Amino acid sequence: MNRASTIDRIPLPYWRAALAEVSLLHPEIPAASKPLAVGFEDGEWRVRQAAPSVAAWTAAQFAASKARADGKEARAIPFLLIPARLSEQVRHGVKWGAGDIHLGRTLVCIPCLLERSGVLRPDPERQPWIPRDLLAPTMKPVVVGELASQDRFIGSLPLKAASLGDALKIASELFMQVTGAALPLLPAAEDGAPLPKFALEGHELVSEWHGLPYEPPVVARHLIRLYDQIIGDQPALPLLDCLRTVGERPAAPPPTIAEAEPWHANTVGHINREHPLSPSQREAMVELARLKDGAILAVNGPPGTGKTTLLQSVVAQLWVDAALNMAPTAP
């Protein structure tokens, strides 16, 4: 997110969407991949043509996927649709063509779910993305736009696409916002304004549908579901609100000796009575006790200086406080 933005807090949908893209991976299309025909038919988006047949092609995709549901074969697998690739016209004296699709660069990735019937549905946990290594700043030689442009677009996205058609429109709008151009296989802009076809000197645009199974990180999926719950329920989470705040947060001044004395007296929780806390650890305990909801205290030190012991004492202090105050529930 561009820190020059005027927003006060980073939108949770931005974090959620950015997490969904994980590293904005750049998939490699297998050399044996053949173009697909994708279209809207009988009220659903589906793969209409594939070699050698849709049924055989779909079976091969499921065989290549690692997706499982409770130990059984999944009804649908995570899948990437790729509407265009960018191929260098000449490299080391060798001219590339459409047949070298696997050697080019994927311009935009559209995550979806592929069913055994060939039906394509939107991935409820991910939005389209442009591979990170094509966005400046980057060390790669090919650049199609700015990462900040993709960040701004991701931050404004709705949580979920209702259909694959919606996902295709999102992909089209994303590509337009980042590059100022259009891709032939994606829907035109809703306002009808004509856009130039994407072009890059020294490269050939190959407009064909390709697809491949992919494996989203499991940890990211769990975190995405957590974000969905937070966004839906909107619970009070002061720490998360603090982390989302944009701008500088001045450090609180340390307490005077007189101010700290009662806090020291109340610091009675300890995990190991044989090894009392050091003065610096006790000072950290006092600072932790003085924190307001959502505030953050950074504690650092070399290995073996007692950071884990301090954390154990914090937990012990919470339990002691709960017991002394006759709290109805554990901390």
Please provide a written account of the structure.
With 331 residues, this protein is α+β, with helices and mostly antiparallel strands. It has two domains: 222 residues, no CATH class; 68 residues. The strands form six sheets. It has a four-stranded antiparallel beta sheet with strand order 11-10-5-15, covered by helices on one side. Strands 9-6-14 form a three-stranded antiparallel beta sheet, with no helix packed on it. β3 and β4 form a beta hairpin. α1 crosses α3. The protein is elongated and about 75 Å long. The N terminus is likely disordered.
For the termini, the CA-CA separation is 35 Å
* Domain unit count: 2
Estimated helix fraction: 25-40%
Radius of gyration: 27 Å
Neighbour order of strands in the largest sheet: 11-10-5-15
Overall pLDDT: 81
Beta-strand content? 15-25%
SSE series: HEEHEEEEEEEEEEEHHEEHHHHH
Low-confidence stretches: 1-6
Classification by helices and strands: alpha+beta
The biggest beta sheet reads: 4 strands, antiparallel
Query: What is the number of helices?
Result: 9
What characteristic shape results from the CA principal axes?
Answer: elongated
Number of strands: 15
Summarize the structure.
The chain is α+β, with helices and mostly antiparallel strands.
